[in-house]
Amino acid sequence: MSTSYLIRNVSVLGGEPTDLHLRDGVVVAVGAVSDPGDGGVETIDATGLVALPGLVDLHTHLREPGREDAETVESGTRAAARGGFTAVHAMANTEPVADTAGVVEQVWRLGREAGHCDVYPVGAVTVGLQGERLAELGAMADSAARVRVFSDDGKCVSDAVLMRRALEYVKAFDGVVAQHAQEPRLTEGAQMNEGELSGKLGLAGWPAVAEEAVIARDCLLAEHVGSRLHVCHVSTAGSVQIVREAKARGVDVTAEACPHHLILTDELAATYDPIYKVNPPLRTRADVEALRAGLADGTIDIVATDHAPHPHEDKDCEWSAAAFGMLGLETALSIVQETMVDPGLLDWAGVAERMSYAPARIGRVADHGRPIEVGAPANVVLYDPSVRRTVDPTESASLSRNTPYRGMELPGRVVATFLRGRPTVLAGALV
Ligand SMILES: NC(=O)N[C@@H](CC(=O)O)C(=O)O
Ligand SMILES: [Zn+2]
Ligand SMILES: [Zn+2]
User: Fold this and answer.
1) Binding site membership of 308 for ligand 1 (Cβ less than 6 Å)
2) Does the CA dihedral 409-417-94-358 come out positive or negative?
3) pLDDT digits over 40-95, tens only?
4) Burial class (CB within 10 angstroms; exposed 0-12, middle 13-18, buried 19+) of 285
5) Which residues touch 363 (CB under 8 Å, ≥6 apart)?
6) 417 CA to middle of ligand 1, Å?
7) I need a labelling partner for 103 at 20 to 30 A (CA). Which of 49, 245, 344, 419 fits?
8) How far is the CA of 324 from the centre of ligand 2 (A)?
9) Which of 311, 328, 362 is the last residue before a domain boundary?
10) Same domain, 45 and 61
11) Which of 64, 324, 403 to mutate to test the pocket of ligand 1 (most atoms within 8 A of CB)?
12) Is the pLDDT reported for residue 37 higher than 80?
């Protein structure tokens, strides 16, 4: 395969069309190229396409080890490449849990072998996600996987003393604790957003305050110990406001919003179709609007997919028995275009910040999230915002099919993804 790609007439971050030359893993030219001066160059006509830095996901469930029926590192990273991602952070709620240097090194190695995108394992905060004892955070940080993000995602680190100690501990290696903010007692048996509709549908409600109370507490803890906090999947207007106020006070807090929370609402629970069951739950239209506004003004730093594959037997059942979670990698950019770019809330530079630069910064990943400029690693996605497509779950590279967008028409398509100058997706297909 060629190691030299001349991309003609491409709009870098939405700017005027120009040329982009990738060779031997790096960007060697941005601007009109008359003669690349190398024989083996492959030319791509990118008229109408936008070039973005390779996307970085801070929140992906790859399910390996343990639930290879739902997803593997191989299948999940193929889905990531199809979505324009060149790096993903793999959540720790696997079986066994990624709470030791051994498990995170295994996941990291599987990512390298698969080669579709770089995999950065997230380490668990507590042993077995049990919320009782701190995991070996230092050993995971020092391992070959160089873990910097720690999370019990799927479960909340609800014990304030443990949370405080984790925040203190990760300072030693510039790590961050990514909190799944869910007060457990306030959400016992919870099935959907608490409101008029949950009462009508007879499904146990999940109050906004269960999320907001933990975020407020954690902001205060992070401020108290002078550490770095990241808030996973923010879903309520109140949460956005708490993060906004904490940032204004100088707390070192970052936050993510998921594509599904930017577009779907709790009314979908009325279908009783568990495809819409997710943690945290889909919220109200007002929450969706507040998340969009927060993402636009920088209160919410990033979009993270929370790609959560589940096999159909865990979703093909009644609502209360079904698993929480939905696919996200292959549709994230389209949802962001639909909800943020097309309505004028973000431009493509803003998308690059929220889906590449900022997640790489938060995860302390040096080789990703870099502007497309001469000398940078050639991690690039070519995206066609002008087409529309109907989501067909059977086309997914994921081993699971639980996309809530089945049959929906969405804008945009990833045409090519380059990982260090090597295409992982070309002409819209996996290489
Ligand atoms: N988001 C979800 O609904 N599910 C996630 C766990 C999580 O992100 O909390 C999963 O692992 O399936
Ligand atoms: Zn979570
Ligand atoms: Zn998650």
Assistant:
1) yes
2) negative
3) 899 999 999 999 999 999 999 999 999 999 999 999 999 999 999 999 999 999 99
4) exposed
5) 56, 58, 89, 120, 148, 149, 176
6) 26
7) 419
8) 10
9) 362
10) no
11) 324
12) no
Query: Do 106 and 246 have their domain in common?
Result: yes
| pLDDT above 70 (res 1) | no
Domain count across the chain: 2
> Model confidence at 39, in pLDDT bands (50, 70, 90)?
confident
Does the pLDDT value for residue 34 go beyond 90? no
- Residue 16's domain comprises 4-50+375-430
Same-domain check for residues 20 and 168: no
The CATH number linked to 418 is 2.30.40.10
Contact assessment for residue 75 and residue 63, using Cβ atoms and an 8 Å cutoff: no
CATH number at residue 136: 3.20.20.140
- Count other Cβ atoms within 10 Å, centred on residue 245: 13
370 domain-assigned? no
For the whole model, what pTM was predicted?
0.98
Among 306, 316, 342, 347, the one annotated catalytic: 306
What is d(CA 398, CA 366) in angstroms, rounded to the nearest whole number?
27
Q: For this structure, is 273 an active site residue?
A: no
> Nearest C-alpha to atom 4 of ligand 1 is from which residue?
325
The Å distance, Cα 325 to ligand 3 centre, comes to: 8
What's the CA gap between 431 and 424, in Å, rounded? 5
pLDDT at 86: 99
Residue nearest to atom 7 of ligand 1 (CA): 154
Do residues 315 and 344 share a domain? yes
Residue 36 has a pLDDT of 73
- Domain stop point among 304, 332, 362: 362
| Residue 74 sits in the same domain as residue 178 | yes
